[in-house]
Amino acid sequence: MGQVAVVTGGGGGIGGAIATALAARGDRVVVADLDFAAAARVADAIGGLAVEMDVRDHDSVRGAVGKAVGELGPIGVLVHAAGVVGGAGPLLTLPLDAFDAVLAVNVRGTFLVTQAVGEVMADAGRGGSIVHISSAGSFQPTVGLGHYEASKAALNALTRSAALELAPHGIRVNAVAPGPVETPLTAGVLADPAVRAPWVARIPLRRIATTDDLAPLVLLLASDQAAHVTGTVLPVDGGQLLGS
């Protein structure tokens, strides 16, 4: 049997696709999401375990991780895909509540989940792999998305510091940084040519990524084939950052 793999945001488009890919390679997958119904739908489809997790809340994270370990055993892989964009708005008029909401999920949530799973992995003494989902926006600014991009830049910093601190335990920590991705959540917005065209124009390969573009890279970083890779934030952006 494969490893126990926890996927946060597993009820969503990116998280669900990664959970499905992990299950297909034989891992026992824990689908964690604030929306338990969404998590349960994915878990039922792949034969996984659904848990409710609010990544902003210490007790919720610890409870969900404890349930995963109690039912399936030591965790070998964490894919932290939970995150929010929080809308868009220029710096001068962005509501403070919107800024705080994005930081709570994308930064506080990353810290809490990485800490909780990192402790479990370290205590088990078997090593492990943690993969965060970042964004190409953490390297390249977009007007109106500064709050989101700042949160993902912080996630990158947490990825690198965690890689240093967890390396003595044999735990690798990496991230992938996609540009825009076709998911059910983005489908409505990207269906508008006025929105889609400027994004495609920034990408040399001239197409928006799909979850099929991300999942193989996440699985690679979560596998022994990447046994000597840690502290890396890997762009999966169709060349978008070449124009930065």
Describe the structure.
GO terms for molecular function: oxidoreductase activity, acting on the CH-OH group of donors, NAD or NADP as acceptor; quinone binding. It comes from Saccharothrix carnea. The chain has 244 residues and is of the alpha/beta class. The protein has one domain: 3-Layer(aba) Sandwich (Rossmann fold). 47% of the residues lie in helices and 18% in strands. It contains eight helices and nine strands. The chain has helices at 13-24, 36-46, 58-72, 96-124, 146-166, 184-190, 193-201, 211-221; strands at residues 4-8, 28-33, 49-52, 75-80, 128-133, 171-178, 181-182, 209-210, 233-236. A seven-stranded parallel beta sheet has the order 3-2-1-4-5-6-9, with helices on both faces. The termini are far apart. The model has no long low-confidence stretch (mean pLDDT 96).
Question: Outline of this structure?
Answer:
This protein has helices at residues 13-24, 36-46, 58-72, 96-124, 146-166, 184-190, 193-201, 211-221, and strands at residues 4-8, 28-33, 49-52, 75-80, 128-133, 171-178, 181-182, 209-210, 233-236. The chain is an alpha/beta fold and 244 residues long.
Question: Topology of this structure?
Answer:
Layout: E1 4-8, H1 13-24, E2 28-33, H2 36-46, E3 49-52, H3 58-72, E4 75-80, H4 96-124, E5 128-133, H5 146-166, E6 171-178, E7 181-182, H6 184-190, H7 193-201, E8 209-210, H8 211-221, E9 233-236
Parallel strand pairs: 1-2, 1-4, 2-3, 4-5, 5-6, 6-9, 7-8
Helix pairs in contact: 1-2, 1-8, 3-4, 4-5
